[in-house]
Amino acid sequence: MASDSKQRPVYVISVAAELVDMHPQTLRLYERKGLIRPGRSSGKTRLYSERDIEHLREIRRLTQELGVNLAGVEEVMRLQHELDDLQGEFEAEIERIEGELREQARPQALPAPGEATDPRDRPVYVISIAAELVDMHPQTLRLYERKQLIRPGRSSGKTRLYSERDIEHLREIRRLTQELGVNLAGVEEIMRLRHELDGAKGHLESNVRRLQDDLTERMTRWRTLPAPDEETDADEQTDADGEPGQL
Predict the structure, then answer these.
(1) Half-sphere exposure for 186 (CA within 13 Å, toward CB)
(2) What ranges does the record give for the region Disordered, renumbered to this chain (predicted)?
């Protein structure tokens, strides 16, 4: 697939360091911290892919332009790696289902009705309750919403309503700021990636369901087609009955 070329390890550490304007020792440090995951040659030489180069440039942007500390960078890159892994899982699942379509294999069981929407996304808490649950002032929640760190729903009367997932995100923001000392710019990057990751997971699940539905529909049509012998028998019976008439 298209992303395979970006994952292919091709650059030795000296070339990768030159491409991102860093010292090779810095790349080794980032690897020990789990911020970057280079491949290895058969001789155990580090080899970096285009995706690794993108990640290194993102680390430089976070640290040099936004002033994000190393703890914040670790959170950002952990989420970025999760997104990369999710993309790989998605592509593998698409290939698997397409293979089943080609081979006319038995479809997997479909999700039960009502499972499409995660109950954690249902907006239920007004701002005062949400603030109490996460031990924050309601004004802080409004600030985070303006910064787009959190995205509460709205009732028909425009009242803010927070979901369980919103509560999880608010607790994560508190952990990042209070426990890890991540600045607001770093928190914004981390939460943007969290929202992107949530969206990617939902996109993956909906696409898998769509392909499974397509597989089920094709298999149903295939199973209901008349067998060749039945078609032949029907044709012979028509001839024997003299219908339709022949000249």
Answers:
(1) 27
(2) 221-247
Q: Does the pTM exceed 0.70?
A: no
Span 189-204, pLDDT tens digits: 888 887 787 777 777 7
Q: What is the CA radius of gyration of the chain?
A: 27
Domain boundaries, the chain: 1-65
Give the C-alpha distances (Å, rounded to integers) separating 163 from 112, 134, 170, 232.
23, 12, 11, 61
Q: How many CB atoms lie within 10 A of CB 46?
A: 20
Judge: domain 1-65, CATH 3.40.50.1820.
no
**DSSP readout, 170-238?**
HHHHHIIIIIS---HHHHHHHHHHHHHHHHHHHHHHHHHHHHHHHHHHHHHHHHHSPPHHHHHHHHHHH
What residues are paired with 46 via a beta bridge? Answer: 40
Task: Please tell me the number of Cα atoms within 13 Å of 146 on its side-chain side.
Answer: 7
